[in-house]
Design a protein that fits this description.
Helix content: over 70%
Radius of gyration: 22 Å
Distance between the termini: 30 Å
Number of helices: 21
Largest sheet: none
Mean pLDDT: 86
Order of helices and strands: HHHHHHHHHHHHHHHHHHHHH
Number of domains: 3
Low-confidence stretches: none
Length: 415
């Protein structure tokens, strides 16, 4: 890919690039521009247009900066997961797993169910489905829902670290790194499994008083009514897609083929399926590609390379900490989009890509705004249950610290 050198850009353009880049990342960090109703996708669009308008990114160069395999994979997985959502696949899985479950074992069941589903499907959708399900169960069982809702948020983040398709930032890393689906799972799957165990133990320890009443209830857990006949085709297609992932087929191609097959239907209304797609996230990705591309042309990324070398970020421990901090400052996707330019220059890029995926994902559990999944859980639970910043942080801090330490230790041991 051909980039403009910073020497070929005027001082005015470089100044404009810094302003555009910094203003965009301020919105990514705050969620909106102070005094204006500009959200993250809006900031990405404005920033991308400004980069082209000031000729920091040439119009003919714009398409070169957009990584289409990432966009195709993200869009295709949204369609696939959207179909699964509409036909009740996630509820069916919950029914199978919870059919004979004792109420006292609800917490570990929620943790590992959300973690397993999030490992193979986009974690945001898992949260959307599981929150009303958990609220229904806890209401029927007369349980305090907060520990179980926290389990949905934290476990979906931890489980999603295992595979390329677990979350948007992993998809981005998978496309740029070229790491295969199997390789990714082999290295980060153990972190997800042990991380889910730690998640369960920490939640149980911090909320033991609220959980003690669970074993006293004699009612059975209510299960949703599912039309199994609607699941046959989606399950077959998804199974074939996952097999293709493990067989080494390009994730973008495998997911696109699966999505195309699922769109051939006589029963599913396309309009409803398109509503399942997070169009704002797709726009956000495309805008980010152009903003970071403009930063590369203006030499901003080179400055980050110099800072990375000065702070020894090529070493696993400081890199893990830096990724975790940046992910909580500006959100994980913008952090990964920025740091992707640093990783190829590290002594061990393969391990650095894995560390970037691990740290950016697990750091999302620190605060409510650390990941989209957390926000979905909190907003979906309201007004039935209110989860405040400090109530979440009380759980998020030890879980984030424990899982990041686990991930760093594991990657340090296997490299």
């Amino acid at each position: 890919m051909a980039h403009l050198s910073s020497a070929a850009i005027s001082d005015l353009q470089i100044l404009a690039a810094y302003i555009i880049f910094l203003a965009s990342y301020v919105v990514f960090a705050l969620g909106k521009f102070p005094g204006l109703k500009i959200d993250r996708p809006g900031a990405a669009i404005i920033g991308a247009v400004a980069m082209i308008a000031f000729r920091i990114v040439q119009p003919g160069q714009a398409l070169q900066f957009i990584n289409f395999p990432t966009v195709v994979l993200l869009f295709s997985m949204m369609l696939i997961v959207g179909v699964l959502h509409l036909v009740g696949f996630f509820e069916w899985n919950a029914e199978i797993l919870l059919r004979r479950l004792k109420p006292s074992r609800l917490l570990p069941a929620v943790v590992f169910t959300c973690g397993l589903l999030s490992a193979f499907f986009v974690n945001d959708i898992v949260c959307l489905v599981m929150v009303p399900f958990v609220l229904s169960i806890t209401q029927r069982m007369r349980l305090q829902p907060t520990p179980y809702l926290l389990a949905v948020a934290t476990a979906s983040n931890i489980g999603s670290v295992a595979t390329v398709t677990g979350n948007p930032q992993n998809m981005l890393i998978g496309s740029f790194s070229g790491i295969s689906y199997r390789d990714f799972l082999l290295h980060l799957g153990p972190v997800a499994v042990v991380g889910l165990l730690l998640d369960w133990l920490i939640l149980h320890w911090l909320h033991i008083q609220r959980l003690q009443d669970a074993g006293k209830s004699t009612e059975t857990i209510p299960l949703p009514q599912i039309d199994i006949s609607r699941l046959t085709k989606p399950v077959i297609v998804v199974t074939a897609v996952v097999i293709a992932f493990f067989a080494g087929v390009s994730p973008a191609m495998a997911a696109a083929l699966g999505a195309a097959v699922l769109l051939i239907t006589r029963t599913l209304e396309p309009r409803k399926l398109y509503q399942e797609v997070d169009w704002g996230l797709l726009v956000f990705f495309i805008g980010l590609f152009l903003i970071v591309g403009g930063a590369q042309n203006a030499g901003i990324v080179d400055k980050f390379l110099a800072v990375a070398e000065h702070w020894n970020l090529h070493r696993l421990a400081p890199f893990t900490v830096a990724v975790a901090l940046l992910s909580n400052l500006v959100s994980n996707v913008p952090a990964v989009m920025l740091l992707k330019s640093l990783v190829p220059n590290f002594p061990n890029p393969h391990m650095a890509w894995l560390a970037l995926a691990m740290a950016s994902t697990l750091a999302g559990n620190l605060t409510i705004t650390g990941s989209v999944a957390n926000i979905i859980v909190v907003e979906s639970a309201a007004p039935d249950t209110k989860i405040g910043f400090w109530e979440y942080f009380r759980v998020g801090l030890p879980i984030t610290a424990a899982t990041l330490l686990l991930g760093w230790a594991w990657l340090s041991w296997i490299k």
